[in-house]
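Sample intake sheet
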Amino acid sequence: MTDQTQPLSAADRSYVAFVEVAWQRHIRLAMLLAGDRWRAEELLQDSLVKVYERWRRLSRLDDPHAYLRRALVNNHTSGWRRRRRESLVADVPERAAPTGDVGPDAVVLRRALMSLPAKQRAVVVLRHYEDLTEREVAQLLGCSVGTVKSQNARALDKLRHLLDEPTHGKQVISHEHAR
């Protein structure tokens, strides 16, 4: 148990300031990787713990956010590898739409994104949401640039197919309004 009456050290104060910025900056990435708000928060918290364990060294880096992003991706990858070994299911369970002001197009896009295999989803999110280069994505995921290119191409083809189906959007929208 820590003594709450003692003032925080300079390193701890800088870490708290980092977390306040990092949470807002990285929660959406975590949500896109994890698939829902609860797993995303857990993923981000676990990653922030890893950052804290190395904070004295990391705080001197130019961009500790890059280290956090890498930790998020690595933790997510480790998690889906563990879950994959645990059980495979034929049908993906329904998940609630994210909270907030989200239009039907965002819901359709999010569902299509969540239908991708985890590695393809990670590639798409890192390439197109985080705007990383193929080389940066390859480094983060620990794979070759060619793998990033092929996974991205497959994922985008699947997304195009899912989003071009005329009934796909209607089914999702009508399902959402049925709640």
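Comment: The first helix runs from residue 10 to 34. The chain is about 75% helix and 0% strand.
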